[in-house]
Amino acid sequence: PRSVAVSVAWRPGWPSASLPTLGLVAGLAATDLADVELKWPNDLVRPDGKVGGILAEAVADKPAVANPSYR
Questions:
Q1: What mean pLDDT comes out for the span 35-48?
Q2: DSSP string for 12-70
Q3: List of residues 6+ apart from 24 with CB closer than 8 A
Q4: pTM as predicted
Q5: Which residues sit opposite 49 in a β-bridge?
């Protein structure tokens, strides 16, 4: 089996409220670029099985809710 792993880090400048949709948007973009289907919520599949997955992670510079223990 062959595999490819890619990590991307950037500051998109989007409102933080839109970040939870990033994984789904990335999966839908992958279906446009490759001959794959999106199996909810993050698996990229072909008729012969799973060929990839999308894992999105976000770290906020500031907490969304005031937290006195945040440093």
A1: 90
A2: ----GGGGGGHHHHHHHHHHHHSS-EEETTTEEEETTEEEEE-------SS-SS--TT-
A3: 41, 42
A4: 0.66
A5: 46
Would you state the structure tokens that stand for residue 17, as one six-digit string?
């409220």
Give, for 6, the enclosing helix (H) or strand (E): none
CA distance 30 to 49: 16
**pLDDT above 90 for 10:** no
CA–CA distance from 3 to each of 10, 13, 28, 50 (Å)? 23, 31, 20, 12
**Is the pLDDT score of 43 beyond 60?**
yes
Mean pLDDT, the chain, as a whole number? 81
CA atoms within 13 Å, Cβ hemisphere of 62? 5
Nearest to 2 by CA among 48, 42, 55, 52: 52
